[in-house]
Amino acid sequence: xxxxxxxxxxxxxxxxxxxxxISYRTSASAASIAIDRIKRENRLTGYDxxxxxxxxxxxxxxxxxxxxxxxxxxxxxxxxxPTTNIPAIPVFTLATYYNTPIVxxxxxxxxxxxxxxxxxxxxxxxxxxxxxxxxFREVMLEYGWDQFVxxxxxxxxxxxxxxxxDDFQNMIAYYGDIVLSYTIQIMDHSEAGLLAVLKDVSTRxxxxxxxxxxGNTRGLHRRWMLVAAxxxxxxxxxxxxIPSLRSKGYAIQQDDGSYRYPWVDSTGPQPSDHEAIPGFxxxxxxVDMQGQGKIGSNYSVFEDEVIRRMxxxxxxxxxxxxxxxxxxxxxxxxxxxxxxxxxxxxMERVLITAPTQYRNGxxxxxxxxxxxxxxxxPIVIDDSGGRSPTLFVLTLDAxxxxxxxxxxxxxxxxxxxxxxxxxxxxAVWYHRKGIRPPDEPVCGYTGSKCPANVFYENMGWFIAAIxxxxxTILGAILAFVYLFYAKRQEVERQNALWQxxxxxxxxVAKKGKGEHSMRSISSVPSTISSTRSSxxxxxxxxxxxxxxRKYTIRTLFDNKICANMRQM
Length: 568
Ligand SMILES: *[C@@H]1O[C@H](CO)[C@@H](O)[C@H](O)[C@H]1NC(C)=O
Ligand SMILES: *[C@@H]1O[C@H](CO)[C@@H](O)[C@H](O)[C@H]1NC(C)=O
Ligand SMILES: *[C@@H]1O[C@H](CO)[C@@H](O)[C@H](O)[C@H]1NC(C)=O
Ligand SMILES: *[C@@H]1O[C@H](CO)[C@@H](O)[C@H](O)[C@H]1NC(C)=O
Ligand SMILES: *[C@@H]1O[C@H](CO)[C@@H](O)[C@H](O)[C@H]1NC(C)=O
Hints:
This is guanylate cyclase. By secondary structure, the chain is α/β, with parallel strands linked by helices.
């Protein structure tokens, strides 16, 4: 005699504008799809499933109160949910107290929940943030890096970055083979603030892990890369590793369900978008692909069905779900399907081996362990009831499009890496000339590790020497110019001794016959005396009076003639 199973859906939010990851209005019917699948696979024949749906609205007090109602008043067999970390903690405690199976999905990523000794009745379908740290370490080891810096923001206050910081520190303490050289909290999210952080971290590391709130809806990744690109922090030395759950890396989901590149501004394409691309070309994303990594187009068939079935019983969500924002399935609707399907599989097993124990949470949890195919690919539940997820490592290929370079199957603290490329240079480092960057530049972060350049070291002396040489050359030139000038002055002075300036001459008035005859006496041919235009120097300074005649042609006195004249 088998009882009817009462499945409880305990969904986070049913409020306007609630999270696109887990909204009730765009995910709840995934549970019905899972039950159809269980029936289609002839499991649990003769069973009926009954849902009771209460809302926690992401509030821990409401969650705790409603959980008690469900355990005590509704007497549920299993609780599916809650979907966020803070409400999950009191509800997990209550499930332990009432010894009732509980399976969570969605955004419950806190490592605290993944503790089988504290919460022995729980199964977790969501991916824990700890697996990001484990995958991050695998990437670091793969490329021979052992030090990195972490810059995180608390804007949006969704615990993501603090949780990641703690997970990194735990990972580092556990393995001891990687060093977190520096951690800084980003307080100022303006371009100036980000620049100050970049300057700071660049003196301590080249493998930089920036962390911003979930979903990157405020475009902080874009702003970060833009500031980096404009200020010289996207050279081939820099690697930006961005681990992120609930992400598809280089595809950011928009309100209407479509995707945009992270370098495209949220308000639409901008001219500066291209400036941000070089930053993203130097980035590596570690993401969960929102649980849709290996499926691709097949996932949209499921998503369409979720939206369609929300209008049908028992959800009857017609008017409330008619708004445009509810026409795309919640990101983690697939996980709700998987949570319900996992419960069905475990129920089937428990009925075979221990049929009376199906409400015994501690015992039931052991039947959750195993592997099955979920909506988004294979799902592995480890013996602590946690998920052993597959994470994806992405970078931009030669065409600036996202390419998966590795998948990492994480099993608690260990991981198995599957590389999806054969040529590392073109697949991973295409945008840095095919060369894998070291985690520390050859000359250190500030260049201080290289033998200092002789020139820069003695720059003062070099400059002094150069100035002296320049002055000497200048002096020589000036002396030469002066000598040349002095020589010309001298020549001119000497020329002046024999040259008679035209101005100092005066025309001689016509003379009487006597004068002519006087000249004739000197038996000089009478050519001079017969010229009317004869001139006579009347300069007072001149000692001698000289008679001169103006030539009708202009004779050129070259240097040689002048020299001869001076000799006379
Ligand atoms: C989706 O995958 C299932 C098996 O996993 C297959 O039967 C089905 O045909 C696929 N649908 C599409 C649209 O590819
Ligand atoms: C949903 O609608 C069906 C028929 O349209 C009705 O029988 C059922 O009671 C409704 N359920 C709820 C929860 O309103
Ligand atoms: C529930 O299961 C645990 C572990 O298997 C067992 O010790 C306990 O007795 C069970 N409780 C009931 C009420 O059967
Ligand atoms: C880039 O795009 C071109 C043309 O579409 C294609 O031939 C090439 O294979 C692509 N390269 C990579 C690395 O995807
Ligand atoms: C990739 O982006 C860079 C930067 O904007 C651009 O110069 C380059 O042409 C792009 N490459 C391709 C293949 O689109």
